[in-house]
User: Which sequence fits this backbone?
């Protein structure tokens, strides 16, 4: 097939990717959008098979079958709660593929033992560094999310200095390899140092900040694909890689804003390690009003409107389904039920929405923070389950609080708040919550799944 | 800097701008499927992997390419299927599925 024709086919694939992403703008078209995007990928793969330089198809076909089968199995087997790990692994494999491609190209071009043209060299070494950092960083992120590696930030003295030195060493090696003749040892060292850099960049980041890291690695995996495009002079890859890179950058920004942190603070801060010290200063005292499931059920059953505010604790307790059952029961009684979702309610952007959709909650009941906040004033009862910091009014009122400035769900503006909690222990960030002592708040203590089941039982009795 | 590289950078920057504009419009509701879906798209590295594997210039290059095909294909197939699995769960009350 002619090269020009192939380039147009890649362009067509890129257009299908853009259209597919555009259709992701609404849940009613998103599934078709994903299918359109997949058709684009199919076109790109089929066209590449007609590349006249390809001598052997067998290796390619074997790789396609093996990789495809494993991918299909993983997509089926993964639980919705472990989706962040899945995305991290997918990011990592994308990065690894880019790393392997650049290594393969390096070896192919290195044979004639003449120095590379600068263009090619720059593309190959950029792809090596980005691919390696994406791969090893993603593996560490997945390990932290899966709790194979401690979720706590791993900090040591001189960490930033070491990272800076590693980065400089990578760049130095890349420049040396570009200027001087090809040297397999230097190239091997570049690969290893870049892999080490990926690990070291992610280990100081705490488990709660993983959503930001996954977004960032998503962006890197796009950039890695784009650099691969620079190496093989393929515009389709460059366009596509840039699209994904942009997506990751936007999501990173959104997550940082939702946590009221700068990207630099997330990457270098080691937040989880220091927060406990800062939080205890702002301890609040007052009376806590416990409530029984019977009374809570009556409150809910006779309300006109109820808003649930779920946090990740709900998913940990595997209580999404019983929460939906409670919501359905209340709706049958004519109560208006909504769900308020904070951007960092799950372990990655939009995670809580997926978990509730899996439990058959209609997506038009899942309201973003900006939509639900003005509605709280008119809400009779808010039920907070498995969330804490994202509803802490200290973020609005207490400038000394570590949470100050973080956008929160204003549940304290509702008429009544039922706060479901195992005990009075502070939340993930170790910060006390004045909402517990608010006269509007009733504390419903106990395991989330069991207490919700008790509420379902009691509402049926009302 | 060669003309090819300049053209490539121009394309890269323009595509980035399109990406930002398109992705801004995706609601937070769908950010998880957006990430897995865009992830599948970044599996486009498969093209590079196929070429390096298929050209078979050296044995080592062919082996590296073959491994790259496996990982990129995992990325592509796993990404698209898991995205589809998530998106089909998004329904309205009337049982109208997301298409």
Assistant:
């Amino acid at each position: 097939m002619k090269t020009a024709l192939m380039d147009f086919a890649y362009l067509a694939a890129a257009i299908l990717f853009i259209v597919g992403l555009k259709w992701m703008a609404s849940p009613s078209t998103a599934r078709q959008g994903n299918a359109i995007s997949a058709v684009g990928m199919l076109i790109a793969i089929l066209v590449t098979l007609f590349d006249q330089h390809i001598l052997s198809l067998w290796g390619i076909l074997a790789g396609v079958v093996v990789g495809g089968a494993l991918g299909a199995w993983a997509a089926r087997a993964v639980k919705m709660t472990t989706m962040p790990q899945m995305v991290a692994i997918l990011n990592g494999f994308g990065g690894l593929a880019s790393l392997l491609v650049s290594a393969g190209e390096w070896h192919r071009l290195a044979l004639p033992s003449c120095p590379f043209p600068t263009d090619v060299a720059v593309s190959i070494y950029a792809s090596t560094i980005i691919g390696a950092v994406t791969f090893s960083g993603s593996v560490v992120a997945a390990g932290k999310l899966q709790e194979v590696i401690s979720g706590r930030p791993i900090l040591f003295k001189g960490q930033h200095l070491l990272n800076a030195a590693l980065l400089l060493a990578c760049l130095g090696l890349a420049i040396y390899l570009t200027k001087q003749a090809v040297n397999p040892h230097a190239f091997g060292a570049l690969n290893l140092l870049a892999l080490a850099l990926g690990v070291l960049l992610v280990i100081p980041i705490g488990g709660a900040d993983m959503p930001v890291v996954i977004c960032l690695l998503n962006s890197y995996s796009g950039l890695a694909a784009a650099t691969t495009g620079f190496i093989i002079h393929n515009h389709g890859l460059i366009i596509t890689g840039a699209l994904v890179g942009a997506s990751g950058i936007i999501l990173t920004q959104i997550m940082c804003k939702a946590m009221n942190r700068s990207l630099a603070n997330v990457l270098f801060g080691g937040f989880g390690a220091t927060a406990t010290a800062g939080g205890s200063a702002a301890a609040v005292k007052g009376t806590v009003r416990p409530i029984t499931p019977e009374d809570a059920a009556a409150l809910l059953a006779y309300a006109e409107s109820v808003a649930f505010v779920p946090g990740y604790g709900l998913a940990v307790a595997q209580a999404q389904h019983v929460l939906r059952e409670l919501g359905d029961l209340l709706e049958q009684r004519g109560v208006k039920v909504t769900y308020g979702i904070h951007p960092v309610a799950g372990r990655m952007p939009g995670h809580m929405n997926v978990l509730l959709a899996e439990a058959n909650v209609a997506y038009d009941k899942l309201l973003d923070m900006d939509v639900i906040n003005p509605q709280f004033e008119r809400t009779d009862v808010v039920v907070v389950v498995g969330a804490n910091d994202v509803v802490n009014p200290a973020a609005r009122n207490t400038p000394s609080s570590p949470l100050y400035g973080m956008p929160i769900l204003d549940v304290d503006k509702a008429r009544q708040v039922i706060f479901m909690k195992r005990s009075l222990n502070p939340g993930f960030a170790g910060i006390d919550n004045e909402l517990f002592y608010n006269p509007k708040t009733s504390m419903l203590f106990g395991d989330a799944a069991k207490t919700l089941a008790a509420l379902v039982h009691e509402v049926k009795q009302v | 800097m060669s003309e090819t590289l300049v053209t490539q950078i121009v394309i890269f920057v323009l595509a980035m701008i399109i990406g930002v504009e398109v992705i801004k419009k995706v609601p937070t509701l769908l950010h998880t499927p957006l990430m897995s879906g865009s992830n599948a798209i970044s599996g486009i590295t498969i093209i590079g992997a196929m070429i390096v594997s298929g050209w078979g210039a050296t044995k080592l290059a062919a082996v590296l390419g073959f491994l790259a095909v496996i990982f990129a294909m995992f990325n592509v197939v796993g990404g698209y299927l898991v995205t589809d699995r998530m998106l089909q769960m998004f329904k309205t009350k009337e049982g109208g599925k997301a298409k």
